[in-house]
Specification:
The longest helix is centred in the middle third of the chain and has 19 residues. The protein has twelve helices and 14 strands. A hairpin with a 5-residue loop joins β7 and β8. About 40% of the residues lie in helices and about 20% in strands. The chain has four domains: about 80 residues, no CATH class; about 40 residues, no CATH class; about 80 residues, no CATH class; about 150 residues, Ribonuclease H-like superfamily/Ribonuclease H (Nucleotidyltransferase, domain 5, 2-Layer Sandwich). The chain is of the alpha+beta class. The relative contact order is 0.12. The termini are far apart. The chain is flat, with a radius of gyration of 25 Å. The strands form four sheets. The protein has a five-stranded mixed beta sheet, with helices on both faces.
Length: about 375
């Protein structure tokens, strides 16, 4: 094999090692990456140009070759795309004994308590009985009561009406307990779902909506994908005209793993300023197009964002205003919008379905809570 080909093969192999090492490559934006040197004493910047890549390392600059850092970035992107090609979140199935890990388990009746029944399993290998109540350990109420409360609340009911509805099911619970469930499980699901990248389109929409938080006027800035209607990112701001929307744009790019090809907003100046800082580039082959001054009619209307704003407004009317900027209500609404609620405009699918993330099971809240608990908690 000629020497040059041997060197190219060596660069590819080293690039594969870089791509597989966690934390070796840091994404700065959709076209710029920071790569640690393998010696651990330097950093190199890899930038995507119109037709090729550029790296700041001496190997690329002086030899004009495709260096190991460029190979590493390209291979890491391919690995990420392969992993995120199809994401299916299944209900957690009990298929092994907690004590001896044997798959020889059978159902062995129900454990009854005041608020419901829990399945008991028996292991034919070690002979021990056990129960699994993943995500709902040490709770006196059964999982169905919790997920029903989540569904009722984010469908539009108040905390007190949700508690009254649960009482009709035989579940005695206060509205404060319902609120505690919402806070607990919203945080858990958000942590889990933020690690899954949705396959959104290249056209995104941004808009703002005023809300009351503790009686004070605030603004919710939101970013949504045009094709899938996936609610990508949100943030609460004190002002509208002077707010820096760059953080919203950055969060959206981090969540989606890319920047948009087309950004649709109204004529608010903060969007134009944030667009120039976060999405604009001198490379015309990779430049995001910003469409401003949209109307409710025509090719670039903002009706889809107004529908999302309507969801937020309906929720705010029921709660009479949000209690704090860090309220789990907005996060819970985002999860409900993306993963649970079917949309007529998407033929009965959820935005997550359209974005390549399918949540299985009749009770999607239960599936999400169980999977989040399984990832971040050890079984009893």
């Amino acid at each position: 094999m000629p020497f040059r080909e041997e060197m190219d093969e060596a660069r590819i192999m080293r690039g594969q090692e870089i791509a597989k090492l966690e934390g070796q490559i840091k994404r700065l934006n959709d076209s710029t990456y920071r790569v640690n040197s393998q010696s651990g004493h330097g950093l190199y910047t890899v930038v995507k140009m119109a037709r090729n890549w550029r790296c700041s390392c001496p190997d690329h600059i002086y030899r004009e070759v495709k260096c190991k850092h460029i190979w590493g970035v390209e291979l890491s992107l391919k690995l990420r795309d392969k992993v995120q090609e199809n994401v299916v979140i299944q209900p957690i199935a009990i298929n092994a004994c907690l004590y001896c890990q044997s798959p020889q388990i059978v159902k062995n009746g129900l454990r009854h308590n005041r608020y419901g029944d829990i399945q008991v399993f028996q292991c034919n290998s070690c002979g021990r009985d056990f129960t699994i109540n993943l995500g709902f350990e040490h709770m006196k109420h059964n999982p169905h009561a919790v997920t029903t409360a989540m569904q009722l609340y984010f469908s539009g009911e108040s905390l007190r009406n949700t508690a009254r509805s649960l009482r009709m099911m035989g579940v005695e619970v206060s509205y404060q307990t319902v609120w505690n469930w919402i806070k607990k499980y919203t945080v858990l699901m958000e942590k889990y779902l933020d690690k899954i990248t949705p396959q959104v389109s290249g056209t995104w929409r941004a808009d703002e909506l005023y809300v009351k938080i503790k009686g004070n006027m605030k603004y919710v800035f939101a970013m949504m994908d045009d094709e899938t209607r996936f609610w990508i990112a949100q943030e609460v701001a004190n002002t509208k005209d002077t707010h820096d929307a760059r953080n919203l744009f950055h969060m959206a790019s981090e969540r989606a793993g890319k920047k948009p090809d087309i950004l649709i907003t109204d004529g608010l100046r903060t969007y134009q300023e944030a667009y120039k800082k976060e999405y604009w580039t001198r490379d015309t082959g990779d430049r995001t197009v910003h469409i401003r001054n949209i109307t409710f009619k025509g090719q670039h209307n903002n009706n889809k964002m107004e529908r999302l704003n309507g969801e937020i407004r309906d929720r705010e009317k029921v709660t009479r205003n949000l209690k704090s900027e860090g309220s789990p209500i907005l996060t819970g609404m985002q999860i409900f919008h993306n993963y649970v609620r079917p949309h007529m405009g998407l033929n009965g699918q959820t935005p997550a379905d359209k974005a390549g993330i399918e949540v299985k099971g009749n009770d999607k809240w239960l599936t999400l809570i169980q999977n989040a608990s399984s990832k971040y908690r050890k079984l009893p």
